[in-house]
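Tutorial, part two.
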Amino acid sequence: MKKEVAKMLISEAAPAFSVKDVKGNTVSLADFKGKVIVLDFWATWCGPCKKSFPAMQRAVDKYSKDPNVKFLFIHTWERSETPQRDAQEYLSQNKYRFDLYMDTKDAATRKNNAVSAFGVKGIPAKFVIDAEGNIRFRMTGFSGGDDVAVEELSAMIELAAKKAS
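Running the prediction step on this input gives:
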């Protein structure tokens, strides 16, 4: 798996972005300097996003004791008036223990700034960013296969951690 994943390795500076956590605190890329970050852009209306969550929960659990790996589940492209409540309810009802962040529309531009900064065209969109702030892997969509997805993401995390050290 690592050999296959290594073929997808890229190196692009991650764009500066900020999102809000569920308590309303703003966090940015700089807040996670020195850590491998997995960004997962998703929405409650996105079927493939939700299909990927069992595998993502397994990955979160696998790295839960590793202080150098951080997962950010970023709800974006909202379609309701209550996106944070909708996202929190969905995660809670399905017993997902994800750190939830919100990329809501900018009132002036009507864009979701974080997802726009990454040039996302479809969700789910996942990015693995190394400790230096470089995008090492980019994935869009989810075709199923939880075991393979966890193994693939684990290989990406390990390769991103190795490149940064």
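Residues 62 and 95 are 16 Å apart (CA to CA). In part three we will examine how such features are distributed along the chain.
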